[in-house]
Amino acid sequence: RKEVEQDPGPFNVPEGATVAFNCTYSNSASQSFFWYRQDCRKEPKLLMSVYSSGNEDGRFTAQLNRASQYISLLIRDSKLSDSATYLCVVREGNTPLVFGKGTRLSVIA
Amino acid sequence: EAEVAQSPRYKITEKSQAVAFWCDPISGHATLYWYRQILGQGPELLVQFQDESVVDDSQLPKDRFSAERLKGVDSTLKIQPAELGDSAMYLCASSPETGFGYTFGSGTRLTVV
């Protein structure tokens, strides 16, 4: 079983739509949680950290449920420029980041 | 903005040949990581360095892969001999210390033919 599981998609949504991605992780000792964005043939870049209380950054909202070991990312008012792969990432203590396979999003005009 | 430099950007090699990738982390970053990302997958850790020392190489296929960071600055990842299944993006990342956020380089895309 992979440590971080994500639906690979693709999610094809029209501009302006709201889309949600989910992720589950198996290591209950995980302490840090992130969403990274990866454009085609580019390196991953940090989108946002995920906190237990939930956090928002503009059109992006991240939620964490430690009891269920579940992380989510909500994108409101999708833009064409949001098209990318979204990687769910977890970390235990100071150990290296562990990445999910990613969920591919295509926003269509 | 400081960057992690990687070269080459692209590499095509024949199977059974040797290939090497280079990474120069952000100045002052003590921790350096090499990840491999196969198409359609997430990045998977190959090796982690703290200064010049290997901290974790448990996922590095040591029969053909080697990594070094001799002076604790730049790093080289080598594959010898390359196999078809090694075709992937090889990503280098650095952070000031373990536990801090990463900055990734642009990666080296390897194609083994």
Provide a quick synopsis of the model.
Chain A has strands at residues 4-6, 11-14, 19-25, 32-38, 45-49, 55-57, 60-65, 70-75, 84-91, 98-99, 103-108. Chain A has 109 residues and is an all-beta fold. In chain A, a hairpin with a 6-residue loop joins strand 4 (32-38) and strand 5 (45-49).
Q: What's the order of the H and E elements of chain A?
A: EEEEEEEEEEE
The secondary-structure class of chain B comes to mainly beta
Largest sheet of chain B: 7 strands, mixed
Strand content bin of chain B: over 45%
Residue-averaged pLDDT of chain A: 95
Low-confidence stretches of chain A: none
How does the major sheet of chain A shape up? 6 strands, mixed
User: In percent, how helical is the residue content of chain A?
Assistant: under 10%
Biggest interface found: A-B, 19 and 21 residues
Instruction: Output the structural class of chain A.
Output: mainly beta
Any key phrases for this structure?
heterodimer, A: 109 residues, mainly beta, 6-stranded mixed sheet, 5-stranded antiparallel sheet, 11 strands, B: mainly beta, 7-stranded mixed sheet, 49% strand
What does this structure look like?
The complex is a heterodimer of chains A (109) and B (113). Helices cover 0% and strands 52% of the residues of chain A. Chain A is built from no helices and eleven strands. In chain A, strands 2, 4, 5, 9, 10 and 11 form a six-stranded mixed sheet that branches. A five-stranded antiparallel sheet of chain A has the order 1-3-8-7-6, with no helix packed on it. The model of chain A has no long low-confidence stretch (mean pLDDT 95). Chain B is mostly beta strands. The A-B interface holds A 4, 8, 41-46, 87, 93-102 and B 33, 35, 40-45, 48, 56, 89, 91, 98-99, 101-102, 104-107, 109.
